[in-house]
Give the backbone structure.
Amino acid sequence: MGGFCASVWKRGTPFISIPTTLVAQMDAAIGGKTGINFRSGKNILGSFAQPTAIWIWEGFLKTLPPRILKAGWVEGYKHALLYGEELLRKVEVCSFTQPPSSDLLRQLVEVKWHIVQQDPYESQGLRQALNLGHTLGHVWETLSLRTEAPLLHGEAIAIGLWQEIYLSTQLYGTSSTILDRLTDKLRREKLLIPLPPHTRALWEKLLLQDKKRRSGQLYLPLLREVGQVELQPVEIKYLWQAVQAYREMVE
Ligand SMILES: NC(=O)c1ccc[n+]([C@@H]2O[C@H](COP(=O)([O-])OP(=O)(O)OC[C@H]3O[C@@H](n4cnc5c(N)ncnc54)[C@H](O)[C@@H]3O)[C@@H](O)[C@H]2O)c1
């Protein structure tokens, strides 16, 4: 929000970022996407604005409540899925209620850093890999914001990540072992969260606001294997099937 305000103040004012949560250090502060929620959706008003500097200090993480720490780890898990098996194993053995070691934090920050350096404005398809889990995750986050028990961003992304990896196994033939590992980790961290109240019509309306929609068609980054993501057109009926599969698993 600070970055967005700086980017519109007098048509752009220099700023530095000092992220103090895990999700902000590994993800939100890196890459220059700024924005605020508006009317019915997440990040409807926004801009690309690069800070002059980003100061990441792991000491901030010591005072984070466990729930906020856990939600931050979800983006770290996603970065590891995008990067490769070795990093994924390192993340899997960490307890999400503890901060990462400074070495691991640096590696997870660098995953995002390298991707956004190559495709700063999401114009070459590379950066869209970072949206893994976010098409559906944003819908759950938006729906939850209308309730008395809003989800944290990372909690909603945990739901979206599971559903989009499920889709990858169904549409792409991705190994179900990846989904089993994710399910196991989310279960152990108590991140298999019930879906916020919704109707199919409202869910679909929010889904169709997604910024990755082109000519009426939704495109999602799907995971072919650990370290390999591709943007694919996906029909809404398959997304709904993934929602049902998640509901059945959680209930
Ligand atoms: N722009 C992007 O690329 C990007 C990527 C990921 C997430 N996001 C966005 O980031 C937002 C979530 O960020 P967040 O988790 O930093 O949220 P936040 O800023 O709302 O912080 C969560 C809570 O933690 C508290 N807090 C912050 N630092 C603390 C510390 N060191 N010790 C104790 N408490 C502390 C805050 O006061 C707040 O109550 C979401 O809106 C999400 O959409 C953006």
